[in-house]
From TrEMBL:
UniProt keyword annotation of Nucleus present: no
Location of this chain's protein in the cell: Cytoplasm, Cytoskeleton, Cilium basal body
Pfam families linked to this entry: B9-C2 (PF07162)
A GO cellular component entry from the record: MKS complex
Record family assignment: Belongs to the B9D family.
InterPro entries xrefs: C2_B9-type_dom
An annotated GO BP: cilium assembly
Keywords: Cell projection, Cilium biogenesis/degradation, Cytoplasm, Cytoskeleton
Name of the protein in its database record: B9 domain-containing protein 1
Biological source species: Guillardia theta (Cryptophyte)
Length: 208
């Protein structure tokens, strides 16, 4: 009868092999940016992760709309660009990062980069507000900086994922250019079954 079938199913569940991968699910938005009064900005979003990670749902890159500072606001531009990604992996090495590049225009309406930044997706499940510091690389000399300003070709990275890479940044001269605010909701699945300790879920404000 049904009761015997239910008992058999429970036994199968207990004897089932443990999962071989865990999942990380993140939703939220790239909310806003503040860049010392710079206006008409948009943001490129990329995802960087280790070789053992795979994106199984969602897009690994996106571009916000161009946003302007609202009259009477606190010099922020608001994008509210949605994020939704699901990853799976066999280990935590190479935990995913969100890589941001903010673009604006100069006095001749030419596209220029206003800042780079990156942040690891929080490891703690729950809701998070993350403030990402943004920076710009500097040319190696004042002359190169001036030439770059004249030709609208300031120093920039060839690889847009450079801010997320573990090597090379320490030899690059940079200056702070602004901040970007992310609001993220994080869920993990099957990590305990693979032997990882899961931090307690919490609502956090994180300054990277």
């Amino acid at each position: 009868g049904w009761s015997r079938m239910a008992t058999s199913s429970a036994m199968l569940d207990r004897n089932a092999a443990p999962p071989s991968t865990f999942e990380l699910h993140v939703t939220g938005q790239v909310e806003s940016g503040s860049f010392a009064g710079d206006d008409n900005l948009y943001c490129n979003i990329l995802v960087h992760h280790g070789i053992d990670w795979q994106v199984v749902a969602g897009m690994e890159e996106g571009v916000t709309q161009v946003a302007s500072i609202s009259p009477g606001s606190d010099s922020r531009v608001v994008w509210n660009f949605p994020l939704e990604l699901t990853f799976k992996s066999t280990n935590v090495y190479g935990w995913p990062q969100i890589v941001l590049t903010v673009h604006g225009t100069d006095f001749l309406n030419r596209d220029v980069i206003r800042g780079y930044g990156s942040v690891h997706i929080p490891v703690v499940p729950g809701a998070h507000e993350v403030e990402v510091p943004m920076f710009r690389p500097l040319s190696s000399s004042l002359l190169q900086q001036f030439i770059g300003w004249i030709h609208a070709t300031p120093a920039e990275y060839i690889d847009p994922k450079r801010p997320a890479l573990p090597t090379g940044r320490e030899v690059t001269r940079v200056r702070t250019s602004g901040t970007v605010v992310l609001k993220l909701n994080v869920v993990v699945r099957n990590m305990k079954q693979l032997g990882y300790s899961i931090p307690v879920s919490s609502n956090l404000k994180v300054y990277q």
